[in-house]
Structures are given as C-alpha cells and as structure tokens.
Fold these 2 entries.
Entry 1:
Amino acid sequence: MGRKYLLGNEAIAHGCLSAGVSFVCGYPGTPSSEVIDFLRSREERDYYLEWSINEKVALENAIGASWSGLRSFCTMKHVGLNVASDPFMTLAYTGVKAGLVIMSADDPFAHSSQNEQDSRNYAKFAKVPCFDPANIQESHDMIPVAFSLSEEFELPVLFRPTTRVCHSKGDVEIGKNVSGPKKGHFERDVPRYVVVPVNTRELHKKLNHKQSSLKKRIIELGLNTSEVRGDTAVISSGVSAEYVREVLHDSVSFAKIGAYPIDEDWLRSFVEKHKRVVVIEELDHVIESRVREVACNVIINGKMDGKVPYEGEFAPNIVSSILQSCNIKVRCSYPARTPVQGLPPRPAILCAGCAHRATFYSIKRVYSNAVYPSDIGCYTLGLQLDAVDTTVCMGASITIGTGISHSTEDQNVICTIGDSTFLHSGLTGLLNAVYNDSDITVVILDNRTTAMTGHQPNPMSGCDACGQPKETISLDALSRSCGVKFVETIDPYDLMATREVLEKAKKERGVRVIIAKASCVISRRRSGGKSSRYTVDIDRCNGCGSCIRFGCPALFWIDDQAHIDNTCTGCTVCEQICPQGAIRKEAIR
Amino acid sequence: MNGSFDVLIVGVGGQGTILASNVLGEACLIENKPVRAAETHGMAQRGGSVESHVRVGCEFGPLISPGTADLILAFDMLEALRASHFLKEGGLIIASLQLIVPVSVYMKKLDPPTIQSIRNALMGKDAIFIDAEECAVRAGSPLTTNMVIIGAASPLIPLSLSSLKKAVAKRVPAKTLEINDRAFEIGREEYLKAKS
C-alpha cells in the first residue's frame, strides 16, 4: 500500500485495516480518539463501527462481536480502562474467539489526563498479553500480530501506546487492507461464557496454564529483542527505547521490550551477561521488577533505586543524563538549558463565545460561595473562572456532590457535567442522588457533542459515529424518569432568563436539574453559522473591567479600556454584562 | 544530535501550526527522507501554548531536546520566548510579529508583555522577525500565515523548494492553493530580504 506520512493513531487504524478487523468501537479520550475518527471518516467501510456510550459498554460490545467470530478492536484512553476493567478482568478467564485487541492509550506527563497510570499493570493484573509500541511503524505492524496472538491463545491483547506514539507523526509503510467477515455466528459454550463459580474455577486454571507458553511465544515472535555488545546494558520499552537508541553508545548492550509478559529465562540470560543493567521505562517499574527478580550479582539501576523518575515523560536529554549518572556510556550529552522564567502562562481556555463560560458566570452570580463539583471535559477549564472545585473522573461531579451534600450543612452544592459525560456515567449518579434524597443542583452543560476530544458525536448530536442521522434523546425526559421533579432547560447566552431559573432552583430542595443547552461554538462555526461581531464604544467604556473578568479571550485591554478582537463570535454575553452599555453589535461593513 | 535537522514550531492553539508541520513531513516523504514529529492534541489546543516538533532526517524518537533545535518557527512572540531555550548554538528563530496576550494576564492584572519587551528578551539569540499576518493578508487571506512562515523557513530547511511546494499542494485545500502558494513565496522573499 506504500509509504505515507501519518499520525500514530492513523497508522494504528491502518494496522486494523490490514488485520481485517470487522468490529470497531470505543469511547473518545485523548490520546486515543483519532483511531476511530480515522476509521469512521473513510468513505467505504466494510466493518461495523460505533462510538459507544462508555468504555465498559464498548468492551462488552467487542466481547460479543469476538464471541460471534469477528475480529474486534476497542479503543479508550488509560483511565477508560478503569471503567472497562470489570469486563476486562473476567474476559481473561472466558477468553476470546476471534481476535480482540483493546487499545488503552497511556499519557505520561498527563498532557490531557487526570492521572499518569500505567496500563501495563492492568495486563499483568488480568494475566493478558500487552503490546508496547516504540514508534509509529511498530504500532502499525503490531496490530495484525496482536490479533493473531489473541486468537492463538484465546486471550484479549492489551495494546498500549503512549501519547508520543499516538500523537507523533512519521513516514510509515502501510500494509494491504484485508476484508474480514461482516457477520459471524455465536455458538453456545456455557462452561466458558457463563462464569458461575463452578466454571470460573476451571477457567482460572486454564488462564494460569497459558502463561508460560505465552511468554515463550512472545520471544519467538521477535517482540522482545536483545543485543549483547559489552558488559553494561540498558533495557527499555515504548518510546523511551527510541530515546535510548538515539543516545546510547555502541559499546553498550541493549534489550527492547515490545510485549509482556516477559519470559524470565530469556531475560535472565541477557541480564546475567552484564555487570550493570539500567532499566529505562516511563511510568511504573514494570520491566524493572522482572529484571530485579531474575538478576543475581548484577547491579540494577532504575526507578526502585531512585535513578529514574516515576513521573512524567522522557526525552533524549533526560535519558542521556540518567544513563550518565549510572556510568553508562552515551554518544552525546546535551547542553543544560532552562526555560525563560516569569513568563505569563498560556493554559488552555474555553473558546471565545463558549456557552460554558456564560453558564459558569451565571452559576457564580446566583450560587455564590457554593461548592462546585465538576467533571471531565472542556468545562473543566471553568477552573480558571473559580467555578470548579472538584474533578476526579468521568461522572464524579454528581456523586461527589451527593456525598458533600449529605455531609455538610448550609453549603449549596451545584454540579456541572457535560452531555457526553452525563450519558457516559453521570446518569447512575443522578438516579442514586434522587433515590437517596440528595440536596443538589445539577447543571448539564449540553453542547450536543463530545467537544474536548475532537467533536465525536454522541446521542445528543443527531447522528451516529458514521454520520447517519439519529433522533436525539431528551435529557429532560431522562432526568424526570430518574425521579427528578425540578427540570428546566435554559439558553445560557440569555443571562437574565438563566438567572431566574437558577434562583428558582436555589429556593427548592432535593435534586434539581438544569439543562444548559447551546451547541459547541466550534461546531457552529464549522457548520457555517455566522453571527455579527461585537465592538466596544471607546467613548462609553469607563474601564470598570466587568467584561474582562468574564474571561472571554476575544476581549483585551489597552490603556485601561476594553477592546474586542476578531475572534468574537457574537454570543452577546459581554454586551449583557457591560454596565455602561458600551459594547454593541458591530456596524455591518 | 544525530544528523537530523530539528524544527520546533510553536504558537497558540488554533493558529495552524499542525498544517505547517504537516507540510514539512510531507516534503520529507517526497524526498524519501525519514521524519519524526510530535504534536500537541487534546486539551491544550483550546487556546493554549502548542508546539510541534519536526525532525527532518530522523529515525529515533520525535522529541527535540532543549538546546538542540536548528530552527524555531514561532507564530507568536510570547511563544517564541517561551520556547527559546530549545535553540541550539548557531540555530535561528523565525518569529511572526504577532502577540496574543493570554487573557489571564488581564484577569490577574499582570503587566502585559509587548512585542518590544519580547524582542529585548530575545536579544543575543539569532532571530528574524517578520510580519507574517500582514504578508498573509497581502497573499489573500490571514489564514495563510502558516504558509508565510514555512516559506520564510524554506531556504534553511534541508528540503528542496520543489518538494516543499509539492507538499503544500498536497496538504492545503485545492481551491486555496493559489493563495497559499503566494503566501509561501512572500514568506520566502521576506526571509531573503531580512538576511541580505
């Protein structure tokens, strides 16, 4: 199929095509989303594809497909695997029929994540194989191998790229597309698929029995490789292995781990040939633990003796300095450079004209000094507007808010959660809040899309992953069916009306739901929506700063007066805020 | 450090830095040169600082280390200064004379940086400043600022002019090619003018 310049996630998608994948599903999450985004945007698709409601749902769908004989690929980010961990752990027991590969993309440095967990631990926990690609080409080439291995051992394979693989680009040789079967057949196999105690005890034995041959097979497949060159060695995996290759001197031995579990005999025979072995891996000491288990009379350096950090991501200069501190010969050392200090930071912010900002503004005005549990999405950026007090994981706004409301007096609790996150795992929390008489207000920030990860459609969007029209569901009816009596829908750009609803809600007791409904401003722009810009009448502006405190990036400040730049979307909120009436619609040019 | 030519492209989310890095990557493909790049996706794209690492002729990892970039292409002056420690001895910064002041500066009432204050802070680094947005408007659209910057960098990058132009043609929408081409040319002239 030739050579292309591709994003890591696109290369992974091509890997799926060359493996004849028949069933694709997942839930968006940075850095994993573009695999499905690429596969869903292709004009001809001979596979089933969906954005699922959450990761647990996605994985269970994929299990059904695999048991029906279709090769299935299921994507998520690392924390998504927490949500899917329930089926994941037992899937190892039941095993798969057609190949099932689960992509869980890790995010060292937490570029776009709430933690830096290492998915490799999950593979070890569940006793399933894990692939750890070092670069884009590998991530492409490993996918068909992962499917074959999955089928050979009847186990799911965890495929674990990191941000610097998923979101890196490079020249990739891509494979030929293969068509898998469109439909399969489910055959009953009760002892395998029904994990009542009598069955699961047997399945557990089988799972354990597979481990030693699995380790040998991974070596035979050439997924873990080593080269002895001297009496010191470095062992590495993932993108770190690329940094090691870049800086390591030719006289130092090198072993690269591409898949787990690692065969102890193979590892021991490599380690024993050296006086010192340094293990370079991002996040947890997964390889290092194994190395320390098999090593006798060999000095081991890594995280467990403080030489290698557990946190963050690496780069060539970091790896070079670690190796030098362990007396390993490197090809090049890097100049010490520190960033210029004291510069104003430029964190991500809500877009100009974003409806979430307007909603937060109104919430803060009416529910001042309340507790503001929030959730995972663009609106986490409400932090900069002092409107976010907690963010833990998907769906946790309503539930943590419930806990706070039961545990405090005289503190109003107002939770914010996006539409996609609400449907992902907020709904059960809402049901629980009503059932257990919680006293909270829940604002569903309904922007009709999954915006932060790249505008993937969800049941509010009016179409499915492949663009087929779908009827949107009613958040109002959904909330009422959970037993919520107070449900109101607002237009967040209408500050006056929003304020009235919030004030009404504040006077009530029990669970109150407010649906702040306005399409994402980026979606609106992409669909060609045009609106007039706003401008500041300099003669009227007295520099009070009310508009600037609103925090819209279209507003800026020169010589104690406000100005509006060309990113203004015409949302009108600053016009409503300005006490001087100095902001108004720009004259049509 | 391995013979690759390392370009760091920095800017503010939404400025079109990814298209600029795609042009370099595509040109490498045309010349059969290995290339590795790393991009900012996800959260930071919402108006935050973004960076694309592009390593022309590289077969290792995609990240450029501080003090080793051959070239820094900055779409914003503040981002040029923020990334300036990546520049190697003898490397060059090409920066657009644009400055988006982070909104937090106004909200927290900090002293906003100015183009002049940043130019002063960059004193001592080899740097060329061009009014890329003005050039882009001249070319026909402010959306072609990224092509102005790529054009300005083109004489320095070890990729041929024709490969770069083919790469532009491949990566921009067909109906905007003419304007993008013009922007590229204007950028190239700006660099040559600044150099002479």
Note: Chain A has a mean pLDDT of 97.
Entry 2:
Amino acid sequence: MAYKQRIDGRKFDETRKIEAKVGIIPRADGSAMFRTGNTVAYAAVYGPRNLHPRFLQDPSKGILRCNYNMMPFSSFGERVRPGGSRRSKEISLVTEKALLPVLDLNEYPNSVVDVFIEFPQTEAGSRCAGISAAAMALADAGLSMKDLVAAVSVGRVDDKLVVDLDYNEESYEDGPVADIPVAMMPNHDKITLLQMDGLISTDELKKVIEMAKKACKDIYKVQNKALKEKYKAEAE
Amino acid sequence: MYKELRNHIIKLFGSDTRLDGRKFTDFRPIKLETGVASSAEGSARVNIGKTDVIVGIKTEVMEPFPDTPDEGGIMVGAELLPLSNPDFELGPPGIEAIEIARVVDRGIRESKAINFKKLCIKENEKVWMLVIDICTINDSGNLLDASALAAVAALKDMRFPKYENEKLDYKEKTDKKLDLKDLPITVTVIKIGDKLIVDPDLDEEKVIDARLTVASLSDGTLCALQKGGDYPLTAEDIDKMVHIALGKAKELRRLIR
C-alpha cells in the first residue's frame, strides 16, 4: 500500500503552518518563538557572560552552551518528568553543533553564550523548531553571525519523500518511515545538523536533502521577517 | 547590599508613589489566557506586567495513597526556568521554586475547592492525580501570585481525557470538567520600611523586609498563609496585610470568571 496523500492534507514538500516571533522574553539578551503546527519552541539567549566554574573557561574563545527542555505538560501523551533525560542531553549537544558554525566567539574569551530552549507543547520536529528559534534568539542578542540557521525534519513515509513530518507520519505503521532532522545555513548551502532514524536508500537521501534545502530557505524567510519586524517595531 | 536602591524606594514612598509610578496597592496590568498548551489537559498563561508564567496540567491515573484509598489528588511542581531570569540555573528545583510550588499547592488543597473523593475512580485501586506544573517564561517580579492565579485558571480550563476499560487515552479529551467549588486566590503583600505594597517588581523584591502570602475564598475565608522575608511582622501588620490581600483577591477572581 502506498502513501497516497498526507494525513493532514499537506503537499509532500509543504511544512506545517509556521509562525515566528522575536523578543518574547524581555529579561533575556535575545529571545524568539518558533512554531510549526502543534510544536512550539521558545529560545532565550544569555551572554556572552562570565563562565563558572572556571575550569570550563576557554582563554582563546567563548563557548556556546545549549539546553533543550520539554515542559512537563508539553507532550500530548504522558507527562514528561522534569530534569534532563539522555534524549534531551543528546539533543542539546546536536543543537550546539548545529548553531556553532554561524557564530564567531573569538572575541569573548573565558565567556559563555547560554541558549535555553523550552517547549510548552510538542508534536514531532521539536529539535528543528528549537534550532530555528535559537538562531533567531542569537541574532536578537546582537551576536555577530555569518548566517542564520534554519532547520526542518524531512524523511520518508512509505514510498513518499516528505517535509516536516508530524506525529502521525513519524508513527506511520503501514510502511517504512525515515525521520531526518536537518539544519542548514541558508545563505551558504551548508548543513549543520543531520540525524536519521529509519530506513532510506542513498538515492532517496540525496533527493530528500534537496527538499530540506528548499524548505529551510522558506523557513529562513519567516525568521528574517520576524527579526526585521521586531526592529521595525522598535524604530517606530 | 541594595542600600541606595532601598533608600530611593522609601523616599518615593514618602511622596505616595513607587518606582514605576504605581500606587501601593496597584497591580501591574494583568493578562490571563487559557488553553495555551494544547498538549495539556488544562493550561493557562498569566502576565503581570512583564512577568510571564505558564501552568499546564496533566492528568494521571494511579493507585491511591494507602491512607486515603478513596481519594485522588493534586501535585504541584514549579520550574524556575533559566530561560526566564539570568540568575536561575539548570538543575533540580531550588528552595525558591519549592516554596512557590508548596504555597500554590496549599492555596488550592486547603480551600477544599476540589473534592478529592470525586477524583476516585475505584476505591483502593484507581484515582485521578492532577499534576500541575508551573513554568516561568519571564521573571519581572511576583512569580508567586502569577503562578497561583495561572494554576487556578488552568484547573478551571481542565478537561478530563477519556478513561475506559482501565485505559487512559490522552488523545481524546472529554467534555468533563473539574468540579471547582470555589476559586482560591493568592495575593502576596510586601512590607518595605513601614509601607505595605502588592505586586513587587524586581527592584522592590530585592529590598523587601517581610512578606505575607494570603490565599482566600470568595467569601473572604482564609485558606493558606505564608510569612516570608528576614524581618518580623506585628499583629497589626498582619491584620492590615490580610485586608489588603482580601481586597485584591476580589479583583483577581474576576479575571478568572
């Protein structure tokens, strides 16, 4: 049986409904919200600021620290126990690696840039939404960046290649599924996050990465607009 | 530590005003929104000025505690997220978060607004547990009152999920609401010098002498109290503070209704 039509009626290369907003947390140095469908990410940036304990400091450059956390009520299933899990630690790590290539932290020796990513509700694709939110928050914090980072999950559901899988697609049972979170530097055509769960051929992988590139460029437009909107509003 | 700030605040008090121009018993503008996290069975978001708090409720079915075999219950947790304040750190809840969670819990529990017996599904075997989680988004002072208000609003917003043949289906919410007999409202009154104020901002919080948190019912009955701060209160202070809190509670209760 083939996957003829997406469960929620989207085109195969269409993301869920996306929204972005910058400057949502006044106390942070930079902040942003990114939403795709039922997944909502908030990101706050604090820093560059002093790094304690001191043994973590790098005298040659600043370091980036990311923390991914789901709020206890953010799952449509059972409550998520507060405090980190192995999963959230791994996602924090790959988030850091996805954002680092666009930053220049050489000017901030012994310092840290902290990025806290929180989710009031999640329904698939949270790490990508978190990265997209965090990139905007870093820009809002005024850090020098050579590009933004936009992220989306792509993949395969049965015989079709799809963009921005939702929960029903991730848990599709009538055929094989591959879930591939991708983050891109949209102006450099470079990939900063790539993971995969599932089965896919090398040919399909090639094709689906091209689909991710296109989707990330669309997401970048939304991010860019949200950033401009905040500073336009401030100028008025 | 904040001697200059304190002197300045007290000087302003002398001309009947505060740092941001408010009167002593004025709250900052309050915004309350429910249904803010569709993954939760009930949720609410409260903004008091720039302070921003989300509360979500997940319902669980569990075995009752042995001493109350025919009663369900509530559990309250507070996460002072490092995203909301540069001084908050990652890790297990600190004493500040624990106090907020426990005071919010007592305000609801002791009000008897929820009949825990009605949360019993089968005696000795299965009861509903309502897990109320407070998450701070932006801390600009007075997290406690914001959290308590959001918690009660989230309870009012709550719908039970489907439970059939000993199976809980979170995907299907029912029309069944929680029976709330009253709306307990929590208001904290602050003492700085010889003045009593409500809804402190971040600067006022730095220099408080004492605080009294008062949870009350719609008929004015008190249901929970918590005294905080490093300095003592007189019986006269307490009487005045309770009256201020009761007056403010009436205003806040209207926001939920």
Note: The first helix of chain B runs from residue 3 to 14.
